[in-house]
Amino acid sequence: MPRTARTRSNGNSRAVAAGFLLPALLLLGALVVYPIGYSVQRSLFDRSGSSFVGLDNYLALVTDDSLRTAVRNNLIWLVLAPAVATALGLLFAVLTERIRWGTAFKLVVFMPMAISMLAAGIIFRLVYEQDPDRGVANAVWVGVHDTFAEASGFPRARPLPVHPLTAAGGGAYVTKEVVRAGEPVRLPLVGVAPGRMPEEARPAREPAAPSAAGDTVTGTAWLDFTKGGGGKPNVVDPAELGLAGLRIEAVRDGEVVARATAAADGSFTLPADRVDGAVLRLPASNFREQYDGVEWLGPSLVTPAVIGAYVWMWAGFAMVLIGAGLAAVPRELLEAARVDGANEWQVFRRITVPLLAPVLVVVLVTLMINVLKVFDLVFVIAPGSAQDDANVLALQLYRSSFGTDADLGVGSAIAVVLLLLVLPVMAVNIRRIRRETRR
Amino acid sequence: MTAPAPRTSPTPKTARPASPPSPPSPTSPTSPVSPVSRIAARAAGGAVRVLLVLAGLFWLLPTAGLLFSSFRSPSDIAGSGWWEVFAAPAQLTTENYTRLLSNGTITGSLLSTVLITVPATLLVLLLGSFAGYAFAWLEFPGRDWWFLGVVALLVVPVQVALVPVSKLFGAVGLFETTLGVVLFHTAFGLPFAIFLLRNFFAEIPRELLEAARLDGAGEVRLFTRVVLPLGGPAIASLGIFQFLWVWNDMLIALIFADSQSPPITVALQQQVRQFGNNVDVLAPGAFLSMVVPLAVFFAFQRQFASGVMAGAVK
User: Where is the ABC transmembrane type-1 domain (chain A) (predicted)?
Assistant: First the structure.
């Protein structure tokens, strides 16, 4: 009965189908299909579009320097970004499974997916600010760095020629004469701006006479400079400050035999029996420039830095997809393995990951397609001066097509390359759908 | 690559049966867990928690930095890091926001964003469900081939169309118009919309449609009364996905939107060029641009997640 009804209205139903489909197909034809043909054709012509150049625009991708940077960076992106995001997603999905607040954690990691790449770009411009007092990345980095490498107190401090100190190479200074028990040591330096002296520094005193027992060598390390003039070199004048915290080593035959640190008034004490006949050295660590952190958005680190922002955005995507796959893994299998004595790592490595392999592939491929087209993040995060170093294909396409020095031939060639790179995925999609519709 | 993207199962297993809490308790009496391995398991559980807390902080800090910065005065921003607010909460101020909202540029660009996003979302839902229905239930010659053609377009990068469509729009007067942006977004949203909705509509039981046909319902009536209501969940999650996609877009707007009234992403992007001394504009502006997507995200997490999952390999 329904069959006859349908055949009767066959001509009519074709018209209905056309009515339902036409708006969508017209838009797709004009704005998606036609542009593919246009780009392919345009990519074979030169800048002006009037003369045929064959594959020259494609060759430029490997011969032209700035284009080659874009290709190379895209490869770095393609290798790094999907792999790191997927690995983190897998890690988070597995680890949150048994944690009560796992859902909250997932929400936090997934959230960046909802915001624009522009907003993420601004967020990471703030994170990557060079000044450790403003950018959180460098604040943390400098903090960690200074915990391991002691902060230096006196960059650019140095002795004058009249001083009893001389350069020892590598940024260190040594005394010209050896130390004798019973003779106080003077360690004067200049070249520290008064504002950069340590807060705890106090006016220095003439080195005290050695103790009666004669078992110590005493000395004073001070800034031999009186503000406003009037100070005498090599003399501890009243207003001159002690080099509080200056590190001093006694060296004999190339070996450090004793160490001391100058007190707030610059005084220090060394055991006489060990340092008698040694020279005193001010190690280079006293004079290192203040560590200013990493130049995240400089030429060499800008691409990894932007990839970091990308991973921040997309790890949540991997986590959610893998989490859904994980929910489908039969629990009994995991429990059985545990009962058989497998530890968690073995369960993860031998059972969970193989079962998740199809999902992992889908995630990786999706991210790779996505990474191929990355534009906004690079455009926003890389400062103008670093955009050449951070260049990627999609950014170069934008510059070639709409920049001041536009070359639509090259722009179209890049577009076609991007399309060619996703063709395998297109083929897989089609195969899959054909199998499904035939069923 | 043969496995389809995973979907959320129709009945989510919320309560996992017999899944023991963190330190695995002995599951069978024949394999008693030694005290040593129990301590090891507990230590590992602790390490996992620490790791996750650190990772969570890592994910929160960047956004927190933007949020706190947006509530600090320009001089505070220039002088110190946003984490100083924990030491001096008094420096928090809303003056950046009042200044931004009283200046028409940002509010105008938010309006432009709405004027682009809402039509582009509705149009994709409308045209996508028309076509999805036709591919699922109407008979016409070459139906499966047409559908394969649409599937092929799923992965076409928008970059391919930037130059040709800007020429095309220039020729018909749509370049730098809101309608042009809307049409571009619609066209590139359609393949996924058609693909998703066709698959969803195809699951509607045939009897339901036949019964309505026997009752004398025409195709249009069938579509509005049966297919659309049943397709609700898929349409909702597609709508959320498309909405966020268009709201967050910068590239297409950068090229096709009216430069006199650009959407918020483009308006902010123009400010980024002088990054450094305008954080007091950029931070609150970026946060304003995020408010709507975040609200949508938190309100419709489930639909968003399933939309994202269905969109894998787009």
Answer: 71-429
| Distance between A191 CA and the closest CA of chain B, angstroms | 27
Q: For the residues of A6-49, what is the DSSP string, one character each?
A: HHHTHHHHHHHHHHHHHHHHHHHIIIIIHHHHHHHHHTTB-TTS
| Residue-averaged pLDDT of chain A | 84
Q: How far is CA A133 from the centre of its chain?
A: 17
Q: What's the CATH code, domain B99-310?
A: 1.10.3720.10
Q: How large is the ipTM? A: 0.83
- Taking the domains of chain B in order of start, what are their residue ranges? 38-93, 99-310
Fold classification of A41-118+296-438 is: MetI-like fold (1.10.3720)
E strand residue ranges, A180-313: 185-189, 216-223, 247-252, 255-261, 267-271, 279-282
Taking 70 as the threshold, does the pLDDT of residue A259 lie above it? yes
Percent of chain A topping pLDDT 70 = 93
**Cβ <8 Å between B309 and A320:** yes
Q: Is residue B60 scored above 60 in pLDDT? A: yes
Nearest to B290 among A119, A331, A373 (CB): A119
Residue B96 pLDDT? 85
Tokens of A373: 């087209």
Any idea what DSSP says for residue A231? P
pLDDT at A124 over 90: yes
Looking at beta carbons, which residues of chain B come within 8 Å of A105?
A: 52, 55-56
Query: Cβ separation of A324 and B6 shorter than 8 Å?
Result: yes
Contacts of A432 in chain B (CB under 8 A): 2, 4
Chain B interface includes A426 (CB < 8 A): yes
Mean pLDDT score, B255-262 = 88
Tokens of A134: 């403003």
Q: Where are the domains of chain A?
A: 41-118+296-438, 165-286
CB spacing of A17 vs B138 below 8 angstroms: yes
B contacts of A136 (beta carbons < 8 Å): 61-62, 65, 81-83
Report which of A367, A157, A376 is spatially closest to residue A282, judged by C-alpha positions: A157
Q: Which of B155, B158, B219, B240 to mutate to test the interface with A (most CBs of A within 10 A)?
A: B155
Reported as a pLDDT band with limits 50, 70 and 90, residue B246 is: very high
